[in-house]
Amino acid sequence: MTLAIALPILIPLFSGALSVTGWRSRRVQRALAVIGTGLLLLASILLLHAVWQDGFVVMEMGSWPAPFGIVLVADLLAAIMVLLAAITGFATAIYSLSTISERHERFGYYPLLHLLLAGVNGAFLTGDIFNLYVWFEVMLVASFALLILGGERAQMEGAIKYVTLNLVSSAIFLSAIGLLYGLVGTLNMADIAAKLATVDDTGLVNVVAMLFFVAFGIKAAAFPFFFWLPASYHTPQVAVSALFAGLLTKVGVYALFRVFTLIFNISDSLTHAMLVWMAGLTMLTGVLGAAAQFEFRRILSFHIISQIGYMIMGLALAPLSPLALTGGIFYIVHHIIVKANLFLISGLVYCLRGSYELKHLGGLYRDKPWLGILFLVSAFSLAGMPPLSGFFAKFIVIRAGIEANAWWLVATALVVGLLTLYSMTKIWAEVFWKAAPTEDNATRPASGDLRALYATIAALALMTLCIGLGAQPVFELAQRSAEQLLDPSRYIEAVLGERL
Amino acid sequence: METLMAFVIGVLYATATYMMLRRSIVKLVIGLVLLSNAANLLLFTTAGMMRGAPPLVPEGALQPEGPVADPLAQALILTAIVIGFGVLAFAVVLIRRAYDVVRADDINRMKGTDT
Amino acid sequence: MNALTWNIILALIWVGITGDFNLANLLIGLLLGYAILGFALRDQPQFARYVGKLPKLVWFTGFFLRELFTSNLRVAYDVLTPTHHMRPAVIAVPLIAQTDVEITVLANLISLTPGTLGLDVSSDRKVLYLHVMYLDDEQDVRDSIRRLEQRVLDLLR
Amino acid sequence: MITDLIAGLFMIAGTFLMFLAGLGLLRMPDLLMRMHATTKAGAMGIGLVMIGVALHFLEAGVTARVLIIVLFVMLTAPVAAHTIGRAGYFVGVPLWEGMLKDELKGRYDAETHTLASPPEHQNKEP
Amino acid sequence: MNQQSLILRTTGRFLLPLLLLFSLFLLLRGHNEPGGGFIGGLVAAAAVSLHLFVMGTNAARRVLRLTPRDLIGWGLTTGVLSAVPSTLLGEAFFTALWFEITLPLLGELKLGTPLFFDLGVYMVVVGSVLTIVLNLAEES
Amino acid sequence: MPATVIWASYALLSLALIMAFIRLVLGPTLPDRVVALELMASLTVGFIGIYALTTDQPAFLDVGMVLALTAFLAAVGFARYLERGAHRDDH
Amino acid sequence: MLLTVLSGFFVAALAPLVHRHIPPRHSGLLFALFPACLFFYFAQQLPAISAGAMLLESQPWVAGLDIRLSFMLDGLSLLFALLITGIGTFILIYTGRYLGDHPALGRLYALLLCFMASMLGLVLSDNLIGLFVFWELTSITSYLLIGFNHEDAKTRAAALQGFFITAGGGLALMTGLILLGLAGGSFELSQLLSEREALQAHPLFLPMLLLILVGAFTKSAQYPFHFWLPNAMAAPTPVSAYLHSATMVKAGVYLLARLQPALGGNDAWLWLLGLTGAITMLMGVYLASRTTGIKQMLAYSTVMALGTLTMLIGIGTEQALIAAMAFLLAHALYKGALFMIAGVIDFSTGAKDFLQTGGLARQLPITAAAAVGTALSLAGLAPMFGFIAKETMLESVMGAPALAVVFSVAAFLSATLGITIALVVGIWPWFIRRDMPELPTAFRSPGPALLAGPVVLALLGLGFGLLPALPEQALSAAASAAAGHAVVAELALWHGVNTALVMSIAALLLGTLLFCNWGRWRSMTDAGERFARRLGPERLYAMGMEALVRFSAWQTRVLQNGYLRYYLMTTLGTMVVLVMAALSMNLSGIRIAMDFSGVAFYEYVIAAVLAASSIAAVLTNERLGAVAALGALGFTVALTYVMFSAPDLAITQVLVETLTVILLVLVLFRLPGFLKLSSRPLRLLDALTAVIVGGTFTVLILAVTATRYFPSISQYFVEHAVSDGFGRNIVNVILVDFRGLDTLGEIAVLSLAAIGIFAMLKLRSGGQE
Ligand code: NA
Ligand code: NA
């Protein structure tokens, strides 16, 4: 079933194209949103199944042999990421049906959504470094457009930083590709890796690796490149926030995972030190940023950063402990679901109360106990409380850190976990426990039918719970995918086959 | 020629950086244009530069007669130029709208969303 | 049917007959078609005028190239020598040309000739404003413009 | 060989004209005069260089392209000049003080963007 | 609101078809000579932009007949669809399919999905650039 | 083609390019810069012609073709800007 | 056992639903059936366990991480399980009456049952991580239970404080447990306990121990983490009785006792636990003696008890462990009862402070009787079980292998003050008659549901005191487990006259004296209180939290300051530093060649104009001038492409350049001119940055062009474009065929940009479309 590998790109591209063509009909757009993302979900399950069976699924686009044409390669990590993108995409689409206003729908919301997913999936699946750049751009421009959809002042101000810093990242990325191409003369990542393996002194490659590191670091919102994220993530439509929060930075993380396991030497002392510092400082600055916030989505935004730190910690410690990489991957899986859900919950709270400011919120536990429970499940999961998904994610990373004797990182990760708990309980206390501040706020009627929102949130919360209670299969998946990453020769062989 | 281009491209990166560090949003956009040109030229240079041999096959032939300039790099740059244009267009309109809502060209006044 | 259309159809047929589809052959087709039209249909006024255009065009081109050459020399001299000899002015020249095309062709040709530059046409299309570089003798300039206008109208009407 | 020599001549002439255009652009005292230098010398220069090219190759395909280039340049250069000159005049770029006369002065209406003809021509039928 | 000069207007009227023709020329020969969907599309977009400057946005929209946004949709659809047919024959996505047709005047012609794809590119480029330029011009 | 002719052509064009650029920098008004830009476009076409000739590669003429046809659009754009009475920061 | 734990969660989940359909006065009884059944189940295991058997069962959970749902029932866990289920039964009965009219009672049941299941899981877990999971679950449920009256800000703060401290300790504990598991080669307690030598010889033994202790100490409110416990009294009284005296706070003690065989028996253990325990004991009893809040006093006395238990486990002798188990049981009985009594006083009179009470014996005779009984036990007076526990304790501290004097003095002081507070509890509210204002609320009769717990527990205290053989079996089994080998507890009310008894009598006298001067004692110690308020652990905690918020606000202001300039500066600066560092570390593999050969003069000119136009764009102070400079840049770049054989690129560049100019012109139309916004030094700094960034790229390009490891793969495209791609323009064949996917993405980018721009221009905030 190798066809399944291109479908996660082509389905959203096609849905997006049709959605543009059917611009004038809201019904067509809404139907396409559900059908398109639903099909995407099916395709990504198919893909994961195929990859689980065969280890790698590879397709040479246009039947041009690798390394000349563009190949799509799905290893377990890629397939997992695609599945997560599909889940988030589907959830967001359903959620959007009842939260996105007609105004926004009429200005391209759904086409943008589809094309964003296409870009994200393209980035996950491509085996070609320049093609990765292209998909990054697709994703980026789609996110630009989604970010400003609505034209509020805050959106514009946030977008200026988002756009500028991400464009700088793209330029650095492109420059790095240019330098790498100059050195190796090829773009296929497997081919690059295979060729570099035969070079004696790859000193210059280590230098170029720094540029890739910075470019992806910006995309991943790692320290000290994260500025664009807190400036903008709380400004768009909440469904968009959720999608961004879940997916976008993780594409940067994915790219870091990919190139630093396949192409560049992660054991290089500078690279290792850099990743370690980056991981620690990302965790810490992110969580401290959140501690200073008193707006629902801003708190969540800063936490994205700190959680990215855990994932990078997984990568940074990979040479010392294979378990670390497993932890990083587990963390990604957990985080995408939980963070997206928390944003969706903030949106539902907004629907109920009309504000994201903690000081204007309150009384929701009394009024909506089930919402409270759904929030608690996600929030405690984010904070790494057992038996939810976040606990195992944190546990693996920390256990790996201990195995690797990375004491400072472990200590940081622990403190950050505690501070995450601090933020989550802050939200809980202010939004749910505290009495509603004024009557008029508390009685603001919910707009429209919220059942779809509850269903989406409940489904994602259930997923968090299941990843926690049934952590073994997810762990096994993460472990096998880490094994694949740690043995690049398998990837190279899958792509280049007998040409080696 | 690559050596010469290395310096020229360095100048482009430098000017792009300087422009992006200004407070005026218009200068920011100009910086982005410079940056994208710099990256394209970098790719062009590192792929190796060759005079007078465009990657075209003469009519009736199966291959060019002699060596030709790297067509792959050119295809990549073409893609990058077009992408850069799309992105730039977006950025340009964005600053325009940002100016509309903020009523100032000064980026330092657009910091309401950060803290 | 328009004479030009006929000429093109003939050229295409030529290309079809010879089966050799390229630009050169099409040009040959056009020339042959032109000759045939001039020969076969010379008694019909519509075609006669069409056929008569070519010599006019050739003649006009020659005239214009000469103008171009001489005036270029003058500007070149002025640019190259350290002192400026120009006597610039903006003058209004009344127009005989009426249609958009006539006015435009005239203005463009004027602009292409060194020493004069068509600035704008008044909104009532009565005058053309020119920037002239060497207004040594205003009447002389006006006369040469008028001559050019006449030739243009000859060619176009 | 002969054609090559002629081609060379055309090329030198063309590039020389273009050089003149550059020099004129730099040396002339006001916008309108600079435009004289560039539009024509530029267009002419391209024309000559292109003829040189056509002579050098002596191929129908190349000649056709050369003709098209010359045609396009002849078509667009005066329009560009006109557009800039008009705009420049309209916004009032300073003109050389040695100008003999200016019959256009004051005839643009900034509000309606209309251009009046001089009074002596207004009622005259052409 | 036609305040543009007569000269520009007249030349523009003549240049529009010329540029559009030129753009098609660039599109069609792109597979063999410099040109192609991007370049052709950009020239076409430039042509309509010129028309816009000269004759105003309404006139430019009239020239297009359909909104440029639809052009984007159709172009993207074309692009994606041209990647698919090969899979029906069991090949990978994007595998080119070529077939020769004999036209009465033009003779043997090699057509293939890449050309179809290039057409999609052309449409998207025209549609996108014009969406941008037209809306921006209407704004100012 | 004699090398001196080619050399001279390039030299003349280079000088012209430099002068045009100087005017572009000096201005002083926006229309001056636009004129300089137009000339730079023309010079580019000239360069392309000579280059096509010296390398025996007529393919480069295609670039000249596009340039000849579209470069003036920029001038039209600038003119539109000026005539709309937009904010000007030249002198 | 898995079943018993999971069924707890299951019943908890059902509780709110069931509760809705039953009148509240019966619901408590109904739910109490569940722990009662469990109690009997565990009681049945007692004979086998005390005979030395150990029940093990195991289910895989996350096998790859050695996380299993494995359970072990030995004496220690059994004693705890009995306490949890036994006291839980009475608490549930009590709750039904105490909060009978509360709208959220269903949720309270759910949480209580949830807590009970977690607590059972904790004490039954054999797997370290499984234990930790349940440990954290008790923290979470505790948080939610403390915050039951969540609309009160103080309650929320108290809940957070308790949670934050225990969860923080939990993180340390997790690390410690992971270390323990890794060091011992297994995450199963049943296997680890026999790895004593290996563990204690491990290089990381001390950090491991410290981390585990932090976890245990925070949970069990040891000094200096003790302060959250009295604040947790914001919880409803049944919760305080259950979690914050009888069960959850004992989790830390449980863990210490559990690990004693593996980690104990060394100086570090003795000193750390013994001293911490002793200090906590003294601090607890001292603070208890000077508070007048009923629940506060009980809470502080719980702190005292927890300290005592820690100290005893630290001493670690057989006798000390027996004493610990006896004390644990005695405390659970009397403290559970006392809390319920405090609840009765509150329920019936509304009084929450001793000073509000007095002479209640007439109105609440049964309660008063139960109070006297339990107070006796608290005081450690015969014939209550508390007496036995205290005597054993006093004996064992004197037999400590080290620090015996310190422990003895501490124990004596603690016993003295213990008498005082017992007298306050047992006499003050009931028999002391004073001139008092009206009771806070009208009197309500407690009824049997509220009295069942106190009375039964008080009677048990008496019964075990009179017949110490009754609990002996269970206590021996527990002490054996804590000791790691079989220990037989021989408890008797009368041991003859020994030092311990003498100490007890002295303490009784001194304590009574103090009780008579309770008011003066309180004012005497005010100075200490004032000091604690300024610099005590709670104050430090508050200051720490404040500092956290302030620091994070500061950090955010500094890092996320809103200035794009600074963001860019940081980003690019980091990039340069990293590249430079990498360059300097890899010098051996890097060559740089300066090669200007073959560059024609006009190429220099074009390159110079290219560079100069970018500089012109920077230097001009007109926007349109900058745009014109960009145009010049575009043409020279296009020329470069032409000169180096890229006609398609040149064409594209020219077209894009033209369209860019058009775009800029259309947009700039509305924008104001350039202003010089930055100061001269800033501009210089930026220029320096810019030069460094540019220089970095120059160096990189020079190095790459000089180094080149492999030729490009592009020869393939040159060879196959015509034969397989059917096109002679190789670049175009690559674009539409070889790399069609790139192009597809690229047109997607263009489409997206157009859609985005369309939306941006047409969809205005609030306005029309
Ligand atoms: Na996130
Ligand atoms: Na003239």
TrEMBL record, chain B:
It holds the Pfam family Oxidored_q2. It is found in: Cell membrane. It is a multi-pass membrane protein. Keywords: Cell membrane, Membrane, Transmembrane, Transmembrane helix. The chain crosses the membrane at residues 6-21, 28-52, 72-95. The keyword Transcription does not apply. NCBIfam families: PRK12659.1 (NF009302). PANTHER family: ANTIPORTER SUBUNIT MNHC2-RELATED. Belongs to the CPA3 antiporters (TC 2.A.63) subunit C family. This is Na+/H+ antiporter subunit C.
UniProtKB/TrEMBL annotation, chain C:
It is found in: Cell membrane. Keywords: Cell membrane, Membrane, Transmembrane, Transmembrane helix. Belongs to the CPA3 antiporters (TC 2.A.63) subunit E family. It is a multi-pass membrane protein. This is Na+/H+ antiporter subunit E. It comes from Alcanivorax quisquiliarum. The chain crosses the membrane at residues 6-39. The keyword Hydrolase does not apply.
From TrEMBL, chain E:
Keywords: Cell membrane, Membrane, Transmembrane, Transmembrane helix. Residues 7-131 form the Na+/H+ antiporter MnhB subunit-related protein domain. The keyword Zinc does not apply. It is found in: Cell membrane. It is a multi-pass membrane protein. The chain crosses the membrane at residues 12-31, 37-59, 71-99, 119-137. InterPro entries: CPA3_antiporter_subunitB, MnhB. Its main location: membrane. The keyword Transmembrane applies. Belongs to the CPA3 antiporters (TC 2.A.63) subunit B family. This is Na+/H+ antiporter subunit B. It comes from Alcanivorax quisquiliarum.
From TrEMBL, chain F:
The chain crosses the membrane at residues 6-26, 33-53, 59-82. It is a multi-pass membrane protein. Pfam families: MrpF_PhaF (PF04066). Its main location: membrane. It is found in: Cell membrane. Keywords: Antiport, Cell membrane, Ion transport, Membrane, Transmembrane, Transmembrane helix, Transport. Belongs to the CPA3 antiporters (TC 2.A.63) subunit F family. This is Cation:proton antiporter.
